[in-house]
Design brief:
The protein is mostly helical and about 250 residues long. About 85% of the residues lie in helices and about 0% in strands. It contains ten helices and no strands.
Length: about 250
């Protein structure tokens, strides 16, 4: 997870930086965010039922392989003299779709890997590893972009995918539980009914959605770093890593 999330953070930093360097338009970054968000909104509900119905290790291997191929395409596009922005949007949408399948399978795999009495510690450790990666990833990504450009950042993420897939191969299979409902509308309705019946979970979702929408204006970070503070790619990496520092401390204290 550390390797995978770190690589994902590097790509998430390089994409808006690349688009803003090409267009110099904050609206173009907003369009990039929308291109990633729409497939996530469309597929997220179904993604959970897919993660429940299939071997989670195989799902993760498939999404990681798909993300690796997408990164190869990004490297090729970035190296063009005049990279077409619409193609970058299309590849960003593919990344969003694959991540919407990857994250439910990744997080749902943790309870199957540890005994019940160690689950709270495993969840805290998972959160800690994610926040560590969210600190190191953008900071490292900013250095890579400043040194060799966005194509170098995508290439670094490609290396991470190779390590991540190797780690997944080393895991034992994580097959679905016997009582699992087949993926589809029935499974989605069951999940929504469960969330509605558990006010603590529903409240946690509402708080998280509010924080993500209104509390982390990541789409503005390239504009702030390049045009307001004039700190370039390295400064962009530090700005993007800063929220994860607070999250890291919170997870550490938990």
């Amino acid at each position: 997870q550390v390797i995978s999330v770190m690589g994902n953070q590097i790509t998430r930093l390089a994409l808006p930086y690349l688009v803003y360097e090409i267009t110099k338009s904050p609206l173009a970054i907003a369009a990039l965010t929308a291109a990633q968000l729409i497939p996530i909104l469309v597929l997220s509900l179904a993604a959970g039922s897919i993660a429940d119905a299939f071997d989670r290790r195989k799902v993760l291997m498939g999404t990681q392989a798909g993300l690796a191929i997408t990164n190869v395409c990004l490297i090729v596009v970035t190296l063009q003299p005049d990279p077409p922005v619409w193609l970058i949007y299309g590849l960003a949408a593919v990344i969003g779709a694959l991540l919407s399948l990857d994250w439910p399978a990744r997080l749902a795999a943790v309870p199957r890997l540890v005994p019940r009495e160690r689950l709270p510690a495993a969840i805290a450790l998972t959160q800690l590893s994610q926040n560590t990666s969210a600190i190191v990833g953008p900071a490292l990504g900013g250095l890579i972009i400043a040194w060799v450009g966005p194509s170098g950042a995508f290439a670094a993420d490609l290396t991470d995918f190779a390590i991540s897939i190797w780690a997944l191969v080393a895991l034992k299979p994580i097959p679905p539980m016997h009582q699992t409902v087949a993926p589809g509308l029935t499974a989605i309705k069951e999940g929504l009914s469960f969330v509605r019946s558990k006010k603590v979970i529903l409240g946690a979702f509402a708080v998280d959605l509010d924080a993500m929408v209104f509390g982390r204006p990541v789409g503005l970070f390239p504009v702030l770093a390049i045009d307001v503070f004039h700190v370039g790619a390295q400064g962009l990496g530090l700005i993007s890593a800063a929220p994860a520092v607070g999250a890291f401390l919170g997870a550490l204290l938990s």
